[in-house]
């Protein structure tokens, strides 16, 4: 995003973006480029003469700890279960900041993008479930619910001043609510059975951390150690270990969040998420990629869910929210632009890949899901960009928007 675009964000035609939000958007947009590069590299590597090295690398086992306290996982799972906990910690920090000081603080301001996000989660899940009813891939209904903030923001950032600042804020708020929904889905529906003792350990450590924060103890090494204990206990509890990151982020005192985000957000966007893409996007493309039982239905469900479901769900839910008087379109935007943003939200890369690995134990279904996610996310980016480029830039007329 250029300096001219920053000035545009503060001019009439949309509510100005705060410095914190502009910094967040810049990092996400640049991170989206790194994420794309890593995904393309993984895809090329996995389909090259050296594809055996790709599989060998990520299946290599690594043991951390000692004795009865040792954990052994392959490198792919250390990325997915360990490093991604830091990604979700940053997500938790952002959700906390938005709830306390950002767009989600004001229920009326947050109402329209929040309702749009819900529509953008429910409709794709319903489409996927309808396509896969009675099929072996039904468990993947959560895959098309997710929107990738980095990719979506990156696409919008490339369009610069063609997109009103208010519409960028709408997309960011929608994506954050979408993240909340994805976190709930992962915690509730994609767990391995709950072990109460481990959860009680988690609760005790978290309660102790909150008490220490409230009495003014903020010694960083102590909380890093406590965070590791929380992660291990969550790992043993059956709830996916990354949820520990979200909870820690939500419990972090608001005064510490700007500093933590400033330090950790670049690491999350430029190291952790690209590593996740490198470890997970390497799908071998072949003529029989969707030939396994249920694989074609999985691919069609994901494609229709992300490309059609997101567009219809977000646009339809926004229309209902505006018509019912709960709010209005983002200032300076049109329904055509809103539709373009809804289509861009069909880029479901990072969290969709994450859920696909949790939903299926059959490797052929996982590969089919990953390939469908890659293809559909690319289509959503291109189609959404085309709609936004063709959308008129003027403030919507009475035919375009209904005032509350």
Secondary structure layout plus pairing:
Elements: H1 3-9, H2 19-46, H3 51-59, E1 61-64, E2 71-74, H4 75-100, H5 107-131, H6 149-158, H7 165-189, H8 196-214, H9 220-237, H10 243-251, H11 257-280, H12 295-323, H13 335-344, H14 349-359, H15 363-390
Antiparallel strand pairs: 1-2
Helix pairs in contact: 2-6, 2-11, 4-7, 4-10, 4-11, 5-7, 5-12, 6-7, 8-9, 9-10, 12-13, 12-15, 13-15, 14-15
What does this structure look like?
The protein contains 15 helices and two strands. By secondary structure, it is mainly α. The chain has a domain at 3-75 and 109-184 and 286-390: Na+/H+ antiporter like fold. It has a two-stranded antiparallel ribbon. Strand 1 (61-64) and strand 2 form a beta hairpin. Helix 6 runs antiparallel to helix 7 (165-189) and helix 14 packs antiparallel against helix 15. Residues 1-15 and 393-404 have low confidence and may be disordered.
């Amino acid at each position: 995003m250029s300096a001219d675009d920053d000035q545009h964000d503060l001019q009439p035609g949309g509510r100005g973006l705060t410095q914190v939000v502009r910094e967040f958007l810049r990092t996400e947009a640049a991170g989206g480029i790194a994420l794309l590069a890593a995904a393309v590299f993984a895809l090329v590597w996995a389909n090259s003469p050296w594809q055996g090295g790709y599989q060998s690398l990520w299946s290599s086992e690594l043991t951390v700890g000692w004795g009865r306290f040792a954990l052994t996982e392959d490198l792919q799972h250390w990325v997915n279960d360990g490093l991604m906990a830091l990604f979700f910690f940053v997500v938790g920090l952002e959700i906390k900041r938005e709830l306390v000081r950002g767009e989600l603080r004001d229920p009326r301001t947050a109402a329209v993008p929040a309702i749009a996000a819900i529509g953008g989660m429910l409709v794709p899940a319903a489409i996927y479930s309808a396509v896969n009813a009675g099929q072996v891939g039904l468990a993947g209904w959560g895959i098309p619910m997710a929107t990738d903030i980095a990719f979506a923001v990156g696409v919008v950032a490339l369009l610069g001043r063609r997109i009103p600042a208010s519409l960028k804020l709408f997309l960011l708020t929608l994506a954050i609510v979408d993240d909340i929904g994805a976190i709930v889905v992962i915690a509730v529906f994609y767990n391995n059975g709950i072990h109460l003792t481990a959860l009680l350990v988690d609760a005790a450590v978290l309660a102790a951390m909150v008490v220490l924060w409230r009495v003014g103890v903020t010694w960083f090494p102590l909380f890093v150690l406590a965070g590791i204990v929380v992660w291990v206990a969550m790992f043993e509890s059956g709830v996916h270990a990354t949820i520990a990151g979200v909870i820690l982020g939500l419990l972090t005192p608001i005064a510490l969040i700007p500093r933590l985000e400033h330090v950790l957000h670049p690491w999350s966007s430029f190291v952790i998420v690209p590593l996740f893409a490198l470890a997970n996007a390497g799908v071998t493309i072949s003529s029989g990629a969707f030939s396994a039982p249920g694989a074609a239905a999985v691919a069609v469900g994901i494609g229709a869910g992300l490309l059609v479901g997101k567009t219809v769900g977000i646009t339809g839910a926004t229309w209902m929210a505006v018509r019912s008087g709960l709010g209005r379109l983002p200032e300076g935007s049109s329904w055509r632009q809103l539709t373009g943003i809804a289509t861009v939200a069909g880029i479901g890369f990072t969290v969709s890949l994450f859920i696909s690995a949790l939903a299926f134990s059959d490797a052929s279904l996982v590969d089919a899901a990953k390939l469908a996610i890659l293809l559909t996310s690319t289509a959503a980016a291109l189609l959404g960009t085309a709609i936004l480029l063709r959308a008129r830039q003027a403030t919507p007329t009475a035919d375009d928007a209904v005032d509350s």
